[in-house]
Amino acid sequence: MLEVIRSHPAYRQLLAEIEQGDAIQGLGLPRAARLPLLAAVHGDLNRPLLYLTSRSDRALALFDELVFWAPQIDRRLFPEPNPLFYERGAWGTVTRRDRLQALAVLAQYHLPAANNGSSPPPLLIAPVRAVMTRTLPRRDFLKVSHTLRPRQEAQPQQLQRQWAAIGYQYSEIVVEPGQFCRRGGILDIWVPAEARPVRLDFFGDEIETIRSFDPATQRTVAAVQGVTITPARELLPAYAEARGIPLLPTTGVVEPIEEFFLPLVHPVPATLLD
């Protein structure tokens, strides 16, 4: 089907207009034709694409259906938070993870140490309200991201403070994204953008090895050449503390500050489009 679409003169004209940066009017495509056309355009342009939908349920349906048209595609869902922008409520764990995964994949294009050119460009699907919901500025996201590799000098205590400052939470054992733990000369961390957590084995202040591991069994899976640590929250706790916004609720239990305060912590917030 995709080859039939690619052979059509109207498609070739559309592709040429996109390459030239021309303004394109609405195509008026029926729903059944949108995903195959999107898959063809994504494969031919070889660049990140964003598919906007009007509702969350439509975005979820298209996200699942896209596998049929492009099984090998790097598809990412950028969901909208459950609370409205004026409601003070916690974002769900899955919502945070999916949004951060999309941001981290796009950040690879601006992190020379992380972008080796081997990763395929992503195709993001998002409802309009998800894109309208503000996130941390791109500059801040890139500023706090860092790449670790074997044989690199790094102090475990400093890394722990650094990770806590960008939203990671300490845990006795790493079982979900956004957590880290330490056992002697070993540091475990699960970056939200990664499918598995990684284990950093230290000899003094030098990283000897970095290995991915299974969070269910805690057994190592494979050695990796490096890992890029990106923020675990769209609201950075270090920035909140710098602006005098307390991280302690009235109960006295230490908890991360809610994304409701994001406009106060980051006065010039951004969106996915940035």
Topology:
Blueprint: H1 2-6, H2 9-20, H3 31-45, E1 49-53, H4 56-69, E2 74-77, H5 93-107, E3 122-127, H6 128-132, H7 138-144, E4 146-148, H8 156-165, E5 169-170, E6 179-183, E7 186-189, E8 198-203, E9 206-213, E10 220-223, E11 227-229, H9 237-242, H10 262-265
Parallel strand pairs: 1-3, 2-3, 5-6
Antiparallel strand pairs: 4-11, 6-7, 7-8, 8-9, 9-10
Describe this structure in words.
This protein is an alpha/beta fold and 274 residues long. Strand 6 and strand 7 (186-189) form a beta hairpin. It is 34% helix and 18% strand. The longest helix has 15 residues, at 31-45. It has ten helices and eleven strands. Residues 248-254 have low confidence and may be disordered. The two termini are 34 Å apart. The chain has a six-stranded mixed sheet with strand order 5-6-7-8-9-10, covered by helices on one side. It has a three-stranded parallel sheet with strand order 1-3-2, with helices on both faces. A two-stranded antiparallel ribbon has the order 4-11.
